Q: What sequence folds into this?
């Protein structure tokens, strides 16, 4: 606090100068050859930084001051213009790319050792013979155990250049000596399609958790599989999906809309409009689609829902979406960092913007979510506030609204039984995963005779296993939690976690959806068609 007060005038001065500097660089009205030319405002910033570095009485980390300053400037623009520091660029790039280079294992640190939960399907570790329950002890003579090692450090030791090799020494229960595996690192997918399977004989289900570079390819593979299995309807689950790449989103929408149908348009500060239309490549134009959204579906998820809703294609099911209608462009700042700057607004085909107002500042903007909870709109669709001045009409005469998210055609309240405070707390603490891993470790061979299908169809979590879990978490958390009111919900989540650690590849979603009231609503709607 003393530092902040002492150097506040300095930081504010740099902030003002940096604002002028960045504002000059991001003036897109300038021609490219003029965009980065020097002027007195930029010279002023450079001179100020030089004075601080060479003449100021105390040593100051000017890099950190500039980082703080850039963040301060962006916070005063809009809620979604963000700064990406140099240290975060690789992780952010991997997320948007949809892959990273590594050995392909899902793991967590268990008793100071890397414990493999499951090798990633078709990844280098799976092909080499790594199994769930293995402990990776050594990688190229570097020990990978001990209290001092954090997950970030462990990941760095397992990552490396594409096609580089790493020698692992692995402890496996029942083996007298450490096993040695030589693994060639490869591109490991960060899956954005969590599941693709049939809900009924005619209704397929696809869940997308984000829109990355690889998402359309994953989606297309899932869609083709479901079509081959007889799907004439698709439930597209975009709940909790925060968005991502606009170009990938447009390709997915294109699968559902007829040729030359408007998908969306964007408008920048100069009023330039760019329209995007469906092409001839869609494979599900004649099929029925249900889009599942909730209060955490944002940006690209809302583009999908809005484009289909405005074109009278399918049914939007769930709760009002987040309300983000701004488009960002990533721009390099020259030192390995970048800024994602809002450069335009997007509009649905009827012309509505679904961006929530942010006139009262970013804090008020983010607190609007809690107001929705307090107002009761997550449990009662009639309490969703709409503005008649933002009313629009689809080609078939349906009324839709702008001004703050996509309002579903069919409202489904939040399921309090599966979203109660105790369950949410346990999920955040990760105890379901820890308990499942330790239970499997006692006798993994007991689960060998299960196939994915027989496990999902026939495995049940009995009362004895539920009591074991209750005792386990009370010891682990030091609390006294009981499940009197929601035995079945906890059993369902335990079964889904077991399915995930044993089989992966969407098994969790396939189990958890068996008690999902929104899925039940979609199945009912499907049967009415």
A:
């Amino acid at each position: 606090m003393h530092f902040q007060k002492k150097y506040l005038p300095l930081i504010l001065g740099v902030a003002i100068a940096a604002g002028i500097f960045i504002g000059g660089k991001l003036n897109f009205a300038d021609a490219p050859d003029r965009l980065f030319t020097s002027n007195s405002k930029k010279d002023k910033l450079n001179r100020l930084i030089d004075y601080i570095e060479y003449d100021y009485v105390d040593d100051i980390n000017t890099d950190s001051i500039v980082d703080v300053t850039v963040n301060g400037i962006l916070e005063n623009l809009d809620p979604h213009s963000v700064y990406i520091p140099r240290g975060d660029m690789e992780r952010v790039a991997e997320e948007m790319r949809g892959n990273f280079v590594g050995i392909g294992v899902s793991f967590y640190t268990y008793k100071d050792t890397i414990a493999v939960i499951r090798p990633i399907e078709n990844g280098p570790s799976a092909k080499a013979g790594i199994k769930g329950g293995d402990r990776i002890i050594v990688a190229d003579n570097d020990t990978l155990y001990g209290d001092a090692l954090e997950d970030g450090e462990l990941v760095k030791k397992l990552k490396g250049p594409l096609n580089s090799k790493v020698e692992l020494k692995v402890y496996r229960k029942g083996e007298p000596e450490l096993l040695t595996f030589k693994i060639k690192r490869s591109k490991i997918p960060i899956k954005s399609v969590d599941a693709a399977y049939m809900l009924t004989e005619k209704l397929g289900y696809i869940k997308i958790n984000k829109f990355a570079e690889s998402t359309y390819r994953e989606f297309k593979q899932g869609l083709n599989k479901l079509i081959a299995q007889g799907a004439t309807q698709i439930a597209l689950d975009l709940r909790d999906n925060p968005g991502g790449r606009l170009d990938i989103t447009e390709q997915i929408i294109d699968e559902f809309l007829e040729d030359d149908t408007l998908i969306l348009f964007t408008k920048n500060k100069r009023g330039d409009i760019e329209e995007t239309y469906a092409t001839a490549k869609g494979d599900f134009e004649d099929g029925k689609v249900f889009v599942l959204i909730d209060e955490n579906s944002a940006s690209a998820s809302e583009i999908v829902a809005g484009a289909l809703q405005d074109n009278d294609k399918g049914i939007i099911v769930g709760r009002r979406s987040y309300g983000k209608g701004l488009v960002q462009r990533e721009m390099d700042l020259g030192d390995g960092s970048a800024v994602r700057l809002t450069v335009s607004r997007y509009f649905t085909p009827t012309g509505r913007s679904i961006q929530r107002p942010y006139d009262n500042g970013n804090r008020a903007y983010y607190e609007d979510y809690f107001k929705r909870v307090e107002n009761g709109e997550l449990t009662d669709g009639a309490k969703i506030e709409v503005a008649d001045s933002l009313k629009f009409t689809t080609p078939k005469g349906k009324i839709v609204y702008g001004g703050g998210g996509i309002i579903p055609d069919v409202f489904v309240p939040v399921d309090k039984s599966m979203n109660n405070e105790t369950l949410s707390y346990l999920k955040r603490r990760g105890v379901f995963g820890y308990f499942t891993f330790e239970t499997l470790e006692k006798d993994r061979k007991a689960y060998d005779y299960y196939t994915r299908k027989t496990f999902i169809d026939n495995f049940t979590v009995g009362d004895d296993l539920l009591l074991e879990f209750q005792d386990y978490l009370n010891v682990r958390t030091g609390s006294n939690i009981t499940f009197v009111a929601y035995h079945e919900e906890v059993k369902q989540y335990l079964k889904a976690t077991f399915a995930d650690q044993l089989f992966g590849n969407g098994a969790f979603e396939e189990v958890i959806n068996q008690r999902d009231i929104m899925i039940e609503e979609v199945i009912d709607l499907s049967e009415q068609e």
Remarks:
- Residues 421-525 form one domain.
